[in-house]
Amino acid sequence: MDTEKKLEEVNRIMKEAGKDNSAFAGSFMNFMGATMGKGALDTKTKEFLALALGIAARCEWCISYHVNEAIKAGATRKELMEVGYVTVLMYGSQALMEMNSLLDAINKLEKQ
User: Fold this and answer.
1) What is the pTM of this model?
2) Residue limits of the Carboxymuconolactone decarboxylase-like domain (predicted)?
């Protein structure tokens, strides 16, 4: 599935969750905003952590979403790839295969 389609699906499920249960969606979005906003760690660092966990969890939607957010926070291709390498070091060969999704997302989103 295409990176942009994955991002659309992330947005779709959050929109639908908001229609179905606004308390859940609102609480989740508030929690995410408070968690991912600047604090002791800057937003880019937090996106790197989320990306690494997305790779380890083999979640293509998470990878697409967090590559996009990391780029918005100023991440470079080299930094994003290094996040992938650290994930492979810590998680193993499954993470190496997920770097295909990482590359797809970087290639698609860094040009926008």
Assistant:
1) 0.89
2) 24-99
